[in-house]
Amino acid sequence: MADFKAQIESNNKAVMDCFKANDMQGLSELYAEDCKLLPPGMETLHGRQGVVKALSALWEEGARSLEMVTEELEQLGEDAAYERSAYTVRKADGSVMDVGKFVVIWKKIGGSWQLYIDVNNSNKA
Questions:
Q1: Residues 26, 7, 81, 88: is their CA dihedral positive or negative?
Q2: Could you give the angle at the alpha carbon of 53 between the alpha carbons of 48 and 54, nearest 5°?
Q3: CA nearest neighbour of 115 among 85, 76, 68, 83
């Protein structure tokens, strides 16, 4: 179990690092090829190109860092898990652009944990 949590922590750190470096292609590689991203105000995006599209749009809007805090993480059998977390998106000057929460279904593929379904929503009214 500790190994599982360490892998998810490592993947989440990689997500934050890739976003900060504007490496949306590298970030998308942390997702399963057949992933689904359900961002607020948009249709469901399918596959890694959907991840690149959504996060590149966020970058274009001025986002420069993504902070994620895991609140709940549980493995469901050998090859599935869920995570419930909070996020903060910041601009280059450090000001908060958005705060929200998300739920991710993780899928173990070829021995590594990948984001499979990612549902997020803003706390903004």
A1: negative
A2: 100
A3: 83
CA distance 53 to 50: 5
Burial 72-92 (b: 16+ CB within 10 A, else e): ebebeeeeebebebebebbee
Token readout for 40 is: 């607020």
Q: What is the pLDDT of residues 42-63, one digit of tens each?
A: 899 999 999 999 999 999 999 9
**64 Cβ partners below 8 Å, 6+ apart?**
20, 90, 91, 92
Indicate the pTM of the whole model. 0.94
Q: Tell me how far apart the alpha carbons of residues 91 and 99 are, in angstroms, rounded to a whole number.
A: 12
Q: Given CA atoms 65, 101, 118, 83 in this order, what sign does their dihedral have?
A: positive
Residue 10: strand, helix, or coil = helix
In DSSP terms, 89 is beta-bridged to 66, 98
